[in-house]
Amino acid sequence: MTVNFNLNPNHKRMKTKPMMFLVGMLFLSMTTVFAFGAKTEKIKVYGNCGSCKTRIEKAAHSVKGVTQASWDKTDGMLTVTFDETKASVSKIEEAVAKVGHDTDHFKADDKTYDKLPGCCQYDRPAKK
Ligand SMILES: [Cu+2]
Description:
Layout: H1 11-14, H2 17-34, E1 38-44, H3 50-61, E2 66-72, E3 77-83, H4 89-98, H5 110-114
Antiparallel strand pairs: 1-3, 2-3
Bound molecules: copper (II) ion.
Copper (II) ion binds next to helix 3.
C-alpha cells in the first residue's frame, strides 16, 4: 500500500527550496543577533518585591529592541539584552522610571511613585 504524502503538485521543482529557506532563515536570525549589535547591560533599578520585578521587566520589554530583561530584587540590578540599533540604556531607564522605578539617571514621577502598591514603595535614592 502506498500513501501519498505529497500535497504539492510542484514537488519536484520545489524540492531544494525548503532547505534554502531554512538556511536563509538561520543566516538572518544570526545576523540579527550578531551583526546588529545585541548588547547586554546591567542597570541599577530601585524596587522591592516580586511585583516590582514584574513591573520593571514589563517596562523594559516595552522598549523596542529589548529581547531579554531580568531584574534581581536582591541587588536591584536589571540585566537587559537589546539591539543597540533600536534601544539604549537611557531609553530603557526612561521606560522603567515611567512606571514608578527610579534608576541612577532617571527619577520616577512622584505621583507615579505614590500610586505604587505599598509593598513596592521602595526607599528612594537621595534626590540630586
Ligand atoms: Cu513591589
